[in-house]
Write a structure and sequence with these properties.
The protein is an alpha+beta fold.
Length: 89
C-alpha cells in the first residue's frame, strides 16, 4: 500500500491562512493544527520528522498550543520519549 504524500504547497497555504486568521499562533503551531486536521500527523515525533524539525522544538510549540488553545486534545504522552499524541477537538 503506497501512501500519497500531502501537497506541500497546499499545506503551507493552509498554514499561512491560519497564521493570518490567528496572528497569536506561530507558524509551527499553525502547522501542527493543520497537520492534525488534515490527518497528516497526529503526534509530535511524526510532525517533527515530516517537517525536518527538532522534536524538542515541536514539543515546546505543542505544549504552548495545548495550554493556550482548545483546538487540540492531548491523547497520550510517552514518558520515555515524550512523544505526544493529539487530535483536533
Amino acid at each position: 500500500m503506497t501512501e500519497t504524500p500531502p501537497d506541500s504547497e497546499q499545506f503551507m497555504d493552509l498554514v499561512a491562512r491560519l497564521c493570518t486568521a490567528q496572528p497569536d499562533l506561530t507558524p509551527i503551531q499553525a502547522g501542527i493544527i493543520i497537520a492534525a486536521q488534515q490527518n497528516i500527523a497526529r503526534d509530535s515525533r511524526t510532525f517533527a520528522r515530516l517537517l525536518g524539525l527538532a522534536h524538542a522544538l515541536v514539543l515546546r510549540e505543542l505544549n504552548a498550543l495545548l495550554q493556550s488553545c482548545a483546538v487540540l486534545k492531548l491523547i497520550k504522552r510517552d514518558e520515555r520519549t515524550l512523544r505526544t499524541f493529539y487530535q483536533p477537538v
